[in-house]
Design a protein that fits this description.
The chain is mostly beta strands. The protein has one helix at residues 2-15, and strands at residues 30-47, 60-81, 84-107, 111-120, 125-135, 138-139, 143-160, 172-192, 195-213, 226-244, 249-262, 265-270, 276-298.
């Protein structure tokens, strides 16, 4: 998927060489879009045995795989003054299915496994929003190029349940927050008559905070059994085919890919005795894709 991101970046560079003589008239002042589709994601975190990342270097690893759900999104782009524009977007995914694997190890490099558990995730959600301001470099009938900067926040509510019936009261959860400043580039190029290709790429410098609840383990506190803190980043890229039905109404279909990860951080475990154990959070990693279609209203 890194090749996808590189390809989109290369496309933006090529677009930058389109001759300036094509004109720079700013088109519609406002664009409002709505879409729906499917998202699928993999997510995992890992902790070490101590704060130095040792004893062992991977003590426990939790992986959500193929977490799928229905995605809904809305966005607004408003050219409010001369070439200056604002951008706002909201996205929500309602989780329907996914698998979860929990592994604990007794030695370095995932050797001497001491526990393994396979579970499911059939509920929860992901939401994200961003708000920013940009400058319209180009926006005409042939080509557009608009960079933005702003702030975003993405949260997830993931679950661990047992659909086999062996642990009917298992209802553990993991709540995450990725928030921080972003830079974004959006662009489009006319292909034929009312058809154009659009794309965007976004880089976010994120602060990561999360907390989880091991609801069946009485030795831990509830509803917050442990917390995670780290610094990370995210890259989102998407491409869309847009067809203008009229000057003010367009429909589109698109594909998006994202990759978010952290460096090492801190894991704090809250025991029912009131004690707090600390160890190293090795990483948090999430990646996935969206396929969606929607409508764009221009004014």
């Amino acid at each position: 998927m890194n090749k996808l991101i590189q390809s989109i970046c290369f496309a933006f560079v090529l677009m930058g060489f389109i001759p300036l003589c094509k004109g720079q008239d700013i088109e519609q002042k406002t664009q409002l879009s709505f879409s729906a589709g499917k998202q699928q994601e993999n997510f995992n975190w890992s902790i070490a045995g101590n704060q130095n990342g040792q004893s062992p270097n991977i003590l426990s690893e939790l992986k959500w795989k193929d977490v799928s759900g229905t995605a809904y999104s809305a966005s607004l782009q408003w050219n409010f003054w001369h070439r200056f524009a604002v951008l706002g977007a909201y996205n929500r995914v309602d989780v329907h299915s996914g698998s979860v694997n929990d592994m604990d190890y007794g030695a370095d490099n995932r050797t001497q496994p001491v526990y393994t558990g396979n579970f499911s995730d059939n509920k929860g959600y992901t939401t994200s929003w961003l708000a920013g301001a940009g400058y319209i470099i180009f926006n005409n009938k042939l080509f557009s190029l608009i960079p933005y900067a702003g702030y975003s926040n993405s949260v997830q509510n993931l679950y661990i349940v047992d659909l086999s019936g062996q642990f009917p009261t298992l209802n553990s959860s993991y709540f995450t927050s990725w928030k921080g400043p972003f830079v974004k580039i959006t662009s489009s190029i006319k292909i034929w008559k009312g058809l154009k290709l659009a794309g965007d790429i976004t880089y976010t410098q994120a602060n990561y905070n999360a907390h989880g609840d091991w609801n069946l383990i009485q030795e831990f506190q509830h509803p917050i059994s442990y917390t995670h803190v780290a610094d990370g980043y995210g890259i989102d890229a998407s491409v869309r085919l847009i067809y203008n039905i009229t000057r003010n109404i367009a429909v589109y279909a698109g594909y998006g890919y994202y990759n978010w990860e952290t460096g090492d951080g801190t894991d704090q475990l809250y025991l029912s005795t009131g004690e707090v154990d600390k160890t190293r959070l090795n990483w948090v990693y999430r990646y996935g894709y969206q396929i969606k279609g929607g409508v764009i209203l221009s004014m």
